[in-house]
UniProtKB/TrEMBL annotation:
Residues 1-22 form the signal peptide. Residues 476-499 are annotated as: Disordered. This is AAA+ ATPase domain-containing protein. Coiled coil: none annotated. Its cofactor is Mg(2+). Residues 485-497 have a biased composition (Basic residues). It comes from the Eukaryota. It comes from Clitoria ternatea (Butterfly pea). Pfam families: AAA, AAA_assoc, AAA_lid_At3g28540. The keyword Signal applies. GO terms for molecular function: ATP binding; ATP hydrolysis activity.
Length: 521
């Protein structure tokens, strides 16, 4: 009781002194008290306000990073706080934690305890609030911890922001003005991932390793003096999974996707403008590069002009002026090359350029050389591992009695594209037996069609009509033999084709007997 009475007496004395003493003296005493407290305290304190300066206009980027770092849903310091505020944006399913006002969060860094306190004060005679974070560090290790810890906070905040933000799918806008954005966007919510992609495991591993090395290669690209970008060429038949692979790459890296439609671009100047408006951490896609615009016309025009160089000077000037007008009104090969690998390609960072085509040989070699398209991915028909992945995704089964027969068809040349197999499995997803049997039937039909085509080609070669392979070999030194030797080789080739046909027929007989026995079980 005596201690309490003495405390009340001391508080009463302080109240009297506060009313009697002048404000300047009270301020001096308060500063002396804080200095004494800082001298005796084992901690150092750093305040991080929401806005820079006294005007409250410029947002403090460090405050935003601390807010993201502490509010990460999977961050243990925020989860250990006694009171949290939960929130979720309308465009996202992710729930984020927020530290409640005037509460403290404890963290550890390099074996030292760190404390964050979120202060929210109401401004007098105003509805506005003054927010700030106070960082408390051990005084003895303050200088050694401050810079590395803030760098750690910034890195974690940027990573959380990259993963949690809503990704967008952009397409170029037709007829946009000079002050308007050339892109329009929608939320990108494609479900394709590398786990669901119908690719061989080794190819998946190589692509993921290359993407990870690119995303973490900022210091490397700066050190070697290269623009931080990567080029991918995806080529294969329709339905081989090129678009699904692009979506899986975007979901793996958490990048935005810019789908560039070249037929909507009027000239090279607009193409450069679209490139400038793209953001960092994005994938720029040009699908069917061999069909978008006639890029080979540039080289053809120059060859034609070279052949007609014997004409008069007046006609030559008219020809060049016409070609110049045509190039100024469309996207040229030169403009696309500068877009992918020229000076304008380094106006952003951490960007991937992807070209897709069904026929790789139709693309101009200058577009796909190393430095522009660094990685060439050949996507073909469905392999053994890809088929099992599709069966697992669509049917929910890891094994089936007909899987061996399907794999035998794949190894014998009866493979289908992943889109074809996926459509069959989707249509019969309620019954795994029916789905697998229909896939097997489609593969058998594919093998019969291929075998019949091979037999027709062999018969045409025997009647004197040369096959594409024989035309290709006509200029090689191996074919500079006598006519009798050439006929002997053609006869052997025809006989070998007949043997292949007989082998495939026998294979189908064994395969059908196998499927009948499996269905009878």
């Amino acid at each position: 009781m005596e201690i309490l009475s003495q405390m009340w007496s001391l508080l009463g004395l302080l109240t009297v002194l506060q009313n009697v003493l002048p404000s300047q003296l009270l301020s001096l005493l308060h500063s002396l008290y804080e200095s004494l407290q800082d001298l005796l305290s084992p901690y150092s304190y750093f305040e991080i306000p929401e806005f820079n300066g006294y005007c409250g206009v410029d947002l403090n980027d460090l405050y935003r990073h601390v807010h993201l770092y502490l509010n990460a849903a999977n961050h243990s310091p925020a989860a250990a706080c006694r009171r949290l505020t939960l929130s979720r944006s309308p465009s996202s399913n992710r729930i984020s934690f927020a530290v409640a006002p005037n509460h403290t969060v404890h963290d550890t860094f390099n074996g030292h305890g760190v404390t964050w306190t979120h202060h929210v004060d109401t401004v007098q005679d105003s509805l506005e609030e003054k927010r700030s974070f106070t960082l408390r560090l051990p005084k003895r290790h303050c200088h050694a911890l401050l810079s590395p810890y803030l760098a750690h906070v910034t890195a974690r905040a940027e990573e959380f922001e990259r993963v949690s933000r809503e990704r967008r799918l952009f397409t170029n806008n037709t007829g946009s003005g000079s002050f308007e954005s050339g892109w329009v966007s929608v939320p990108f919510r494609h479900p394709s991932t590398f786990d669901t992609l119908a690719l061989e495991p080794e190819l998946k591993k190589q692509i993921k390793h290359d993407l990870t090395a690119f995303a973490n290669g900022k210091e490397f690209y700066n050190r070697v003096g290269r623009a931080w970008k990567r080029g991918y060429l995806l080529h294969g038949p329709p339905g081989s999974g090129k678009s699904s692979l692009i979506a899986a790459m975007a979901n793996f890296l958490c990048y935005d996707v810019y789908d560039l439609e070249l037929t909507k671009v009027s000239d090279n100047s607009e193409l450069r403008s679209l490139l400038i408006q793209t953001t960092n951490r994005s994938i720029i896609v040009i699908e069917d590069i061999d069909c978008s615009v006639d890029l080979t016309a540039d080289r053809t025009t120059k060859k034609m002009q070279g052949k007609t160089s014997f004409k008069g000077k007046k006609e030559k000037m008219v020809s060049f002026s016409r070609s110049g007008c045509e190039e100024s009104g469309r996207v040229t090969l030169s403009g696309l090359l500068n877009f992918t690998d020229g000076l304008w390609s380094c106006c952003g960072e951490e960007r991937i350029v992807v070209f897709t085509t069904n026929h790789r040989d139709s693309v101009d070699p200058a577009l796909v050389r190393c430095g522009r398209m660094d990685v060439h991915v050949s996507l073909g028909t469905c392999g053994v591992h890809a088929f099992r992945e599709l069966a697992r995704n669509y049917l929910g089964v890891d094994s089936h009695v007909l899987f061996e027969a399907v794999e035998a068809c794949i190894r014998s040349g009866g493979s289908l594209t992943p889109a074809h197999v996926g459509e069959i499995l989707l249509r019969n997803r309620a019954d795994a037996d029916v789905a697998t049997r229909e896939v097997l039937s489609a593969m058998q039909g594919r093998m019969l069609a291929v075998a019949a085509a091979d037999q027709t080609d062999n018969e045409e070669a025997g009647t004197g009509v040369r096959s594409p392979e024989s035309v290709l070999l006509m200029g090689s030194p191996e074919n500079w033999d006598s006519l009798s030797g050439k006929k002997r080789k053609e006869h052997q080739h025809h006989h070998h084709g007949s043997n292949n046909w007989d082998k495939k027929v026998k294979f189908f007989v064994r395969l059908r007997s196998l499927t009948r026995s499996d269905s009878g079980r």
